[in-house]
């Protein structure tokens, strides 16, 4: 299949994307990349966020250290207070603490879970993986 771009996201946020609760990924840096990208669930789990904010979400097993699916990055938006407020109104748990945040929202669409997860070590930033 060739070389694919990958993004590593810690749990429970990777599963929130996979299950359709989270439509934006937030980074301090902008990306010009648009198109398909693999979704890698990092080795760590933010247990505080999981317990305090996402206990009532149906996230399943929340695997770690594996590529769990693919998605498309369709836009990269500079955060503003208005965008933050709009997202917070959509889901206060998923989109909290963005009002004063100076970063970027990567718009995600066409999320697809893989039937078989691919064990692989994650990396920072966007990285490449040879998908066979």
Description:
The chain is an alpha+beta fold. It has a single domain (about 1-130), classed as Roll (Archaeosine Trna-guanine Transglycosylase, Chain: A, domain 4), CATH 2.30.130.30. The protein is built from three helices and six strands; from the N terminus they run βαββαβαββ. It has helices at about 15-20, 45-55, 80-90; strands at about 1-10, 25, 35-45, 65-80, 105-120, 125-130. The protein has a six-stranded mixed beta sheet with strand order 2-5-4-3-1-6. The longest helix is centred in the middle third of the chain and has 10 residues, at about 80-90. The radius of gyration is 14 Å and the shape is globular. The N and C termini lie close together (about 5 Å).
Q: Give the amount of beta strand, in percent.
A: over 45%
Classify the fold: give the CATH topology: Archaeosine Trna-guanine Transglycosylase, Chain: A, domain 4
Summed up, the domain count is: 1
* Shape, principal axes of CA atoms: globular
* CATH H-level homologous superfamily name: Hypothetical protein
Specify the CATH architecture: Roll
């Amino acid at each position: 299949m060739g070389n694919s771009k990958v993004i590593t996201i810690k749990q429970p946020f990777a599963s929130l994307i996979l299950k359709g609760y989270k439509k934006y990924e937030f980074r301090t840096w902008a990306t010009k990349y648009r198109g398909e990208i693999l979704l890698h669930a990092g080795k760590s789990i933010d247990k505080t966020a999981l317990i305090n904010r996402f206990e009532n979400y149906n996230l399943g097993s929340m695997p770690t250290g594996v590529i769990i699916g693919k998605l498309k990055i369709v836009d990269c938006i500079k955060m503003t207070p208005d965008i933050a407020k709009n997202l917070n109104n959509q889901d206060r748990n998923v989109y909290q603490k963005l009002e004063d945040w100076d970063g970027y929202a990567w718009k995600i669409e066409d999320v697809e879970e893989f039937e078989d997860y691919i064990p692989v070590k994650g990396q920072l930033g966007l990285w490449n993986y040879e998908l066979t």
